[in-house]
Write a structure and sequence with these properties.
The complex is a heterodimer of chains A (about 110) and B (about 110). Chain A is an all-beta fold and about 110 residues long. Helices cover about 0% and strands about 55% of the residues of chain A. In chain A, strands 2, 4, 5, 9, 10 and 11 form a six-stranded mixed beta sheet that branches. Chain A has a five-stranded antiparallel beta sheet with strand order 1-3-8-7-6, with no helix packed on it. In chain A, strand 4 and strand 5 form a beta hairpin. Chain A is globular and about 45 Å long. Chain B is globular. In chain B, strand 9 and strand 10 form a beta hairpin. With about 110 residues, chain B is mostly beta strands. Classes of the chains: A mainly beta (about 110), B mainly beta (about 110). Chains A and B meet through strand 4, strand 5, strand 9 and strand 10 of A and strand 4, strand 5, strand 9 and strand 10 of B.
Chain lengths: ~110, ~110
């Protein structure tokens, strides 16, 4: 079983829809949670960063972390065709044995249709 | 501020050869991490360097190695290439603070024939 599970999709929605992307994880030591967006043939671009539990909002994007359930989510409001990309969740744990190491989900491919 | 840069962007090699990839981090960032991305395995951590020292290493064979220079630029080397090494190799940089966000470069796409 992978440490981080993410449904690869693909997920197809109409323009303007609310998109919900999710990841579950098994390692309770994870403290730092990130969402990256990756366009085809590009490197991942950081979208959201959350420390421990709670919600964080940035424009049309909201990230939620529920450590009790080991579950994180990314919501995209008023989705646009330009949001079509692969969304990767990533997380890391503190400690000298984890420096610089992010554990990624498989990525969810999202298509927003005009 | 310029982002993370990686060179070359594309490489084609044959089995048994070796390859060196280069990464220049964001100015002021001292930590550089390397990842391998494949369709089957996704993004997997290779190793991390800080102040010219490897601080952490993922579960890859010894054919994968790296180093970091005094200006924080980093290189990774893969020796005796195998077909399965075909992948997008990504470099990410961050400040030295634990849990700090990592910023990725565009990657080097390596094809092994």
């Amino acid at each position: 079983q992978k440490e981080v599970e993410q449904d690869p999709g693909p997920l197809s929605v109409p323009e303007g829809a609310i998109v919900s992307l999710n990841c579950t994880y098994s390692n309770s030591a994870f403290q730092y949670f990130m969402w990256y967006r990756q366009y085809s043939r590009k490197g991942p671009e950081l979208l959201m960063y959350t420390y421990s539990s709670g919600n964080k909002e940035d424009g049309r994007f909201t990230a939620q972390v529920d450590k009790s359930s080991k579950y994180i989510s990314l919501f995209i409001r008023d989705s646009q065709p330009s949001d079509s990309a692969t969304y990767l969740c990533a997380m890391s744990a503190p400690g000298s044995g984890n420096t610089g190491k992010l554990i990624f989900g498989q990525g969810t491919t999202l298509q927003v249709k005009p | 501020k310029a982002g993370v840069t990686q060179t070359p962007r594309y490489l084609i090699k044959t089995r048994g050869q070796q390859v060196t990839l280069s990464c220049s981090p964001i100015s002021g960032h001292r930590s550089v991490s390397w990842y391998q991305q494949t369709p089957g395995q996704g993004l997997q951590f290779l190793f991390e360097y800080f102040s010219e020292t490897q601080r952490n290493k993922g579960n890859f064979p010894g054919r994968f190695s790296g180093r970091q220079f005094s200006n924080s630029r980093s290189e990774m080397n893969v020796s005796t290439l195998e077909l399965g090494d075909s992948a997008l190799y990504l470099c990410a940089s961050s400040l030295e603070v634990m849990g700090d966000t990592q910023y990725f470069g565009p990657g080097t796409r390596l094809t092994v024939l």
